[in-house]
Design goal:
Blueprint: E1 5-11, H1 19-30, E2 35-41, H2 47-52, E3 58-63, E4 77-78, H3 80-85, E5 90-93, E6 99-102, H4 105-115, E7 124-127, H5 131-143, E8 148-152, H6 155-168, E9 172-176, E10 188-191, E11 211-214, H7 223-230, E12 234-236, H8 238-254, H9 261-273
Helix pairs in contact: 1-8, 1-9, 4-5, 4-8, 5-6, 8-9
Length: 275
Amino acid sequence: MTFRRRAAVLGSPIAHSLSPVLHRAAYRELGLDDWSYDRFEVDEAALPGFVAELDAAWAGLSLTMPLKRAIMPLLDEVTDVAASVEAVNTVVFTEDGRRVGDNTDIPGIVAALRERAVEKVDSAAILGAGATASSALAALARICSGPVTAYVRSEARAEEMRGWGERLGVDVRTAAWADAAEAFAAPLVVATTPAGTTDALAAAVPDAPGTLFDVLYDPWPTRIAAAWSARGGKVVGGLDLLVHQAVLQVEQMTGRVPGPLAAMRAAGEKALAER
């Protein structure tokens, strides 16, 4: 009898997650017919109990909000990358039963940008200061040689972003959200805000802008991404990030390298088109 392997994405809310589509596409492409990938609605209170019930069939977990920090005390080891932003989005169960936490969002951002030939910039801007912004900062630490300006809504958020900059070795400067259109002068702009937040800024996109990385994937394109493309700028979208971080998860959980990026992207595009 074949020993089935299991993986899943946990979070709350979780019904919208494309992770099952991407991971199942990877399993099909890799011929892993005995692997399954599911989604479970799990909040912070339920997480310890859920993890405690997992048996030897489990290969790994993907974590989304609000569990990326809550999972950390339940792990045996956390990689330096995940520890740097206090956020784990990937757990791999080793053969000896240990739980290892990692963050594939950070290298996923770098890989998505590299795919569009953005490998080094001398400055950048971040719109927003939430959980994704810290991962974006960690990614920019690898590719940005100069200052990063974060456009935020409060002094508390500004202080938080400056703190992340100190931890990650990034020269972070902060500015008020009211001046967010000034971000567009940067060669790379990373939008990390919820859907609709940047819509009012679309009219301010200049001619011949640099690169926009908008972490949203549904709805797509966002107004700002559409305006950016219309004015000749390079756009990297949330599906690019989702696919690249998921490929790294598949590689870690299955041990199969390289992961099937093209098949996973095609599956994700199809699923979004059908929504």
